[in-house]
Write a structure and sequence with these properties.
The structure holds two protein chains of two kinds.
Chain A: H1 2-30, H2 37-49, H3 53-56, H4 68-79, H5 81-84, H6 100-103, H7 107-116, H8 131-144
Helix pairs in contact in A: 4-8, 7-8
Chain B: H1 4-19, E1 45-54, E2 62-74, E3 77-88, E4 93-104, E5 114-125, H2 147-150, E6 154-168, E7 171-182, E8 189-199, E9 216-228, E10 239-248, E11 253-262, E12 270-280, H3 283-290
Antiparallel strand pairs in B: 1-2, 1-12, 2-3, 3-4, 4-5, 5-6, 6-7, 7-8, 8-9, 9-10, 10-11, 11-12
Classes of the chains: A mainly alpha, B mainly beta.
Chain lengths: 159, 295
Amino acid sequence: MKGAWKGQMKACVGALCISATLAAWSALASQDVDKSARSAKSSVYSEIEKAPEKARAKRNPFEQNPDAVAAGKNLFEQHCAECHGESALGGKKAPSLRAIEVQSAPPGAVFWILTNGVVRRGMPVWSKLPEPQRWQLVSYIKSLGVVSSEAVDYVPKKP
Amino acid sequence: MIARHTLLLTFVFSLVGLFASSSARGQESPYFVTYDHYLEEPGNLEVEYFSTFGPQHGGNDFHAFWAELEYGATAWWTTELYLDGQTTFGDSTLFTGVRWENRFRPLKHEHVINPVLYVEYVNKNGADKILREVEGHDVASDFLTPNAVARKEHVHELEFKLILSSTFKGWNVSENMIAAKNLSNEPWEFGYTLGTSRPLKLAASAKRCSFCPQNFTAGIEMYGGLGDRHSFGLKDTSQYVAPVAAWNLPSGWTFHVSPGFGLNSNSHGFLLRWGLSYEIAGFGERVSHLFGRDR
């Protein structure tokens, strides 16, 4: 009986230690410590440049599809607008998708980012959306065009 | 007297009502038991309610239910709290336990096979019937014990899973290997789940719609015990196969349904599961605002 009680105590202490460790880790991870937002912003966009050549060369199969932009807009509103803003100009959690870095990137590179996310910087992987839907999203994002104004107050987290 | 599952449902939907001004459609997986490698989006909270109805040979039928609060702490870490309960008809309704699970994505990019590490702490009593997973020598006859007796058994358990998942041409294939350790000197127990699913249509339609085929995902999962450290294998284990389906609505709601079938005499012949979930976008940010912290 005493042994079982000891076992339960050990389990509780163990769970508390794990909780404390994870809470501390989470708090550290969520601290917005990078005050040099501008330079950090450019490093966020540099993730696009990391797309492999093979991915960059991929063509959007929905390029000529007249419904792709409308479908992509629906998908954007459902999955992306919360972080990137209704007009894709960015928000506190995610950068503008109308920056020159995104708009001038090859569609294949944008598709690669959507598929792989930027997990260490808070962008989840979106491969849960089927491939055609990710291409429809690319069609919509690329249809938006460049807005160069600093309309956002996004401060990226350190990786 | 209000039934406890009604209280649980009220709690779940109160939470949804409180924060429901902004929803996100998360393209939810249709699985009930199997995990794929997709984590909750950071800052989002998914509130879920699930039920399992099981006819019981030689005893009273049961309805087990659980609520889940699933939060995306980061893009690589999802944490989840479960509250479990059950009604055994002709016996009683009771709260059966709490679970706290964490899933971690160790790799930065998508690969052919994507691993996720899963750690769960379970504090439940012996009357738990939710069948969230099957491990060791869990069999249908375990559920014959009356609630008043079964609830006296307290189970503190750590459960580990290696989740391996791939998605190709819209098909998701997931495999979970389960190892569970009751912290009261019981041997390690093992189990598995396998699942595959696919949306009915891969491309989205140009119109925002509820009944479009891309909103429906269907598949099948198979799960069962693999014995324990002293007797590893399929002998004296229960095994199930279950078609699964999910309907993702643009409003943020997802309906899940799954009829399950036992594959051997140790299993329940039939299990009917259904569930309802709602994803609250930006939950973490709004809670931060409540406490005066601008994230």
